[in-house]
Design brief:
By secondary structure, the protein is an all-alpha fold. 78% of the residues lie in helices and 0% in strands. The radius of gyration is 19 Å and the shape is globular.
Length: 241
């Protein structure tokens, strides 16, 4: 049930995914209890679905509840706890609450480096997330260093077709745009766009975000023809009429 819900989420069938993930969480709470790791996994899965739907208040309530239990039952250094710390920071960043997000993202990265090692894929997720936050805060040199670390880690640890490789490359390029390193940024964004289109599809949110960064790049360069060309490629309601 839980796995089918995750599959529906991946396919964008959010109503079906929510029904199954909610039912799985209710059953696990009743049968296994609030503090069981399988229950906590269901909490995280449903919160992730809500975050993807921009139902931020619902996601925040679940994430904070799960993290409180994990800190108390599993301890601050347990991988489950560190995952929830990261997820809470990412959620707050998505809500635009950057100053609140930063301590959680720093805690998650520090803990994952210590517990999992610098090159573990979960550590690299935290590297990317903190780099993205610091870019938003204008701390560009540090953001670029973290983005480059994530890209190098992806090349070493992830499969050549793994979608995170392209998300992290696009994230690094976003910082390069902010630093006005436009030639490097363009090369990375075009590569990331093609990788994401192949791995996730043209309609996926990550592909659309990469297109929006390309538009920002060409707007900054004053190349309105290319900017408008990419605007026309934005999917669905994001496209310019």
């Amino acid at each position: 049930m839980n796995n089918l819900g995750l599959l529906y989420r991946q396919e964008g069938k959010f109503d079906k995914a929510e029904a199954l993930l909610t039912e799985a969480l209710e059953i696990r709470r009743r049968v296994l209890g609030e503090e069981h790791q399988s229950t906590l996994t269901s909490v995280a899965n449903l919160a992730s679905l809500y975050r993807g739907q921009r139902r931020y208040d619902d996601a925040l309530n679940l994430t904070e509840t799960g993290l409180e239990i994990e800190r108390r039952v599993l301890g601050d250094d347990h991988p489950f706890t560190l995952g929830s710390i990261n997820n809470l920071g990412f959620l707050l960043m998505s809500m635009g609450r950057h100053s609140e997000a930063e301590p959680y993202l720093r805690e998650a990265l520090k803990g994952r480096r210590r517990v999992l090692g610098d090159d573990h894929p979960h550590t690299l997720v935290s590297v990317h997330n903190l780099g993205r936050l610091l870019c938003d805060l204008g701390q560009l040199e540090r953001a670029e260093a973290l983005g480059a670390e994530a890209v190098r880690g992806a090349e070493a640890k992830l499969a050549p077709t793994h979608w995170r490789r392209w998300v992290w490359l696009a994230g690094h390029a976003r910082t390069l745009v902010a630093m006005k390193r436009f030639a490097e940024a363009e090369r990375e964004l075009l590569e990331a766009h093609d990788g994401l289109a192949d791995s996730l599809g043209l309609e996926h949110q990550h592909t659309a975000e990469t297109i929006k960064t390309l538009i920002d790049l060409y707007d900054a360069l004053g190349d309105l023809e290319k900017a408008n060309e990419w605007r026309a490629k934005l999917p669905g309601p994001l496209a310019t009429p």
